[in-house]
Amino acid sequence: MNCLVIFDSSIDEKNIGKVFSEEAGCVSLFPLTSDTKKIGDVARTINPGKVYTLDVLNTARLVNETAEQLRGKYIEFVSNLSRVHLIRGKTLKEYFSIDDTASAWWFSLIAEKNTFKTDSFQKLVQFETVLRLLAEKDINTIYFGCRSDKLKNALRNHAGNNHISFRIMPTRKDSDIKSYFREFQRIPLMKHLAHNCFVALSIAMRMSKIKSKLGQLRGRQITADSDIAIITYYPNIDKASADNGVFANKYYSGLQDKLRVDGVKVLWVCMYVENNSMSLDMSIAYAREFIKNGETLFFLEEFITWWSLLQSLISMLSMAIKFKFVEKNIARLNSLQGSNVYDIFKDDWYSSFAGHVGLMGHIYYNSFQRLFIKERIKKILYCCEMHAWEKALVSARDSVNAGTEIF
């Protein structure tokens, strides 16, 4: 009997016990951790008398090789998904349309393929690496000791379909609530709808605080004579300059200096991002000083209304119902290299079409629409990073026929 032991730093090696039978032939360790002490402890615990042939695999090399082979296929897989006819002759893009211009598909984690926002591609690569080892080493039993429910569910289903024994090893409980919530895969619809309410409440509180503190400034309004609007993350600013009441944006420092010298009138649209070095209150206080000193600066939250926030929540509830109606069809479409990988991407699908990712896409879209409707903006500049909000910006421009040039 050949065994494959998959584990990460969460494995409770002291409570593994004697999990292997005397008939075991070769035991291959597949560590998803770089902690050499942990790897050594696991090896000594499962094979104290050196009864088995033990092979500690170079996981980093194997996973990297798979990633290089899989990257192009993964991009093609996602690209093809958007064009597949899902139901009643409609493609995914058409089925999840918001209106005649925008589609929630473009706001989704699936379409965005951002490895900083989701670990799904990483788990997919690990999954495919394991599948290759199962064939090469003629594995009969998988022992799994990781926190990742995505990887666990995908491998357990594959093992069941291929008559491979799958056993769970004990892991230490995660004390981080955020990590636990992220990995929690049960009742996904309720999980994501509840998260939507939390996100909406957080945005509402931030919106109210920003509007109450900046709305007090008399005569503050967007003027149509701005030459260009620049969308920027905030508060990534030079603090020394800010202490003197000068707005120095770190994203566009050279450009900002040049525009100021040339007398170009700039409308700054700030997208607030939590910053460990500066609180929201301090960020708003600095913004007040910048505005008083002549900067035309608005937070994106100022274009959110209570009604638009409620509309976004209702729209996401409707989208969630539509998603549940076709979830089985979508699950069947998640096939890559002969294996169904829906268990790995399931949480991304829910986040995108029933959860906070989709909700934020709707909020961005509605907010940018209000920005374009409120004033005639000639040109908009932003740093292209292929985020969902950028697609919401372009879609909002097109939906109101603003005619604004976007750079």
Structure description:
The protein is an alpha/beta fold. It is 50% helix and 14% strand. The chain contains 15 helices and 14 strands. It has helices spanning 36-46, 59-81, 92-95, 109-112, 120-136, 149-161, 177-183, 188-214, 239-243, 253-261, 280-292, 306-333, 342-353, 356-374, 388-399; strands at residues 3-7, 26-31, 53-56, 85-87, 90-91, 141-145, 165-168, 228-234, 266-272, 296-299, 335-336, 339-340, 379-381, 405-406. The strands form four sheets. A five-stranded parallel sheet has the order 3-2-1-6-7, with helices on one face. It has a five-stranded parallel sheet with strand order 10-9-8-13-14, covered by helices on one side. α11 links the parallel β9 and β10 (296-299). The longest helix is centred in the C-terminal third of the chain and has 28 residues, at 306-333. It is elongated.
What topology, given as strand order, has the largest sheet? 3-2-1-6-7
Listing every helix as H and every strand as E from the N terminus to the C terminus, the arrangement reads EEHEHEEHHHEHEHHEHHEHEHEEHHEHE
| Total DSSP E strands | 14
* Class based on secondary structure composition and strand pairing: alpha/beta
Question: Regions with pLDDT < 50 over 5+ consecutive residues?
Answer: none
How much of the sequence lies in strands comes to 5-15%
Shape: elongated
Which whole number gives the mean pLDDT? 86
User: C-alpha Rg, in Å?
Assistant: 26 Å
Helix content: 40-55%
Largest sheet: 5 strands, parallel
What distance separates the N and C termini? 60 Å
How many helices does DSSP assign? 15
